[in-house]
Amino acid sequence: MTLAARLTGLAIDEERALAGRVAGILWAGSAIPGLVLLILPEPGVPHPAVVVALAVFAVVWSLLSFFVVPWERIGPIYMHGMSVVSLVLIAVAVWATGGSDSPERFLMVFLMVYAGYFFPAREAVPYVAGCAACFAVPLLYDPSARFVAEVIVLVPLLIVLGAIVIAGKTVLVALREHADELAQRDPLTGLANRRALMERLDGAVARGRRDSDAIGLVLLDLDDFKRVNTIWGHQGGDAVLRATAHALASVSREEDVVARLGGDEFAVVVHGADGETAAALCERLVAAVREAHVARDVPGSGTTASAGWACYPADAGSVEGLIALADRSMRSAKAGGKDGVGPSARVARG
Q: Of the four, 30, 103, 131, 235, which is 20 to 30 A from 341 by CA?
């Protein structure tokens, strides 16, 4: 795998617009110190023309960042390219404004914090090392004892600051991912919930439109589940739902999505499925539910299920149409005596 393929660019993808605005602010802010140094009587700026050119570039790039760059669509190469160029230009600005006496050196801190916050840890660490190294670059042309002492004190502090920012963002990302996972899981069965199913189904249909992939949707509903709750209470009903979830997961493929939609309703998104595959899976799911309740000796051991199915794009051209046809097929199974599989979406529709 190439380096470009391994890069992600952002720790949280939804922060693209924020990363762009912050980049614009930092670019604009970086132009100010050099221009201020030009108008101060002391100390003099060794290379004023370079400072002016850098300031103009920074202002132009800031305006582009705010008004032109489509941050929601740009890739990680652009994000890292922009940051690497920033590091190089800051090093040039330090040289042009006095080296070890230049306040431009502290612009490294802003870049390091930017990378530490927005980039994943493994992609942010090189910037911490790079900023610390660039902070010490004036040693090459100003090896004074005063500056050596400053580097010895400040470089470790920069590294610690970068590590703190990266560690904090890593914890934040982990907590966010955990919260997202909990928000997409049914707490009783551990299956995906309705939200997760709809997101996966929307994504699968979107990819199917682009890549001509077939997608099957199976809807399954327990038969006479109210009777189980009436006789065995909610604890017995919960045991039946957990047994059902285990049965559905056991006969589904790893790449398929098994979800509990709510109550006694379940669904399976089947990738690469035609009508024959979806119908066969329905039969296995219904049989697995029937057998599981007997084998596990749970309350309501005679509980059965009815299932229906539909396929994209053969039966429907949208997520809403796919759900409606699968539901119609499932209801046909219930009307036909339950504990079975409904007819194809086309037949059910007719």
A: 235
